[in-house]
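During the no-cost extension, the postdoctoral fellow (Dr. R.K.) reprocessed legacy sequence entries with the updated structure-token encoder. One reprocessed record is reproduced below for audit purposes.
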Amino acid sequence: MPTTASVILAALLLSRNLNGGDLPPGKQAVFLARVIAYDANLPARAGTAVNIAILAKKGDKESEKMSEAMVTAFTSLESTTLVGLPVKVVRMYFAGREALERSVRDGGIDTIYVCSGLDASLAEIKSVSRQRKVLTVGSQEGHLKLGLSLGVFDIGGKNTIMVNLDASREEGVAFSPELLRLVTVVR
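Re-encoded structure tokens follow.
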């Protein structure tokens, strides 16, 4: 018998994005929160709260605009819980590998949403995510092919969740088989 979460997730996946193009930030946040909850290792990785960082490139107008929209979208989820844990959202600006590692460690970050403008920094972001066991979420499909773990996109008018399985495993994430039947796996 399917769980309530899987029924809701399947309904979201089957719905069409009538606007075309990118999924609106609010819709992305809802999808991503539901998917993050399918990580069997989340309770151990998260501690007392699920801490989500929205990572942007300071001075890049598009990146800053995207981060503002995503912080707003995820902040609306702070009144909910994921696997029984409260959700906390913070915006961070990429200022190099060491600064990111320090911010992730000190903030107890469990998930990093990577905004546009950070393609040249993906290797450093991945290095930190693998070391600290933090789930990465790409804002662009290409991010997953470059080694980030998770993304949700409008592909051909359909809401599509994509998972890079190898990357997610390196980050200490264990998505359930139930979820993996509903997503597009990227290698």
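Confidence is low (pLDDT under 50) at residues 4-21. The first helix runs from residue 4 to 14. The remaining legacy entries will be reprocessed before the final report is submitted.
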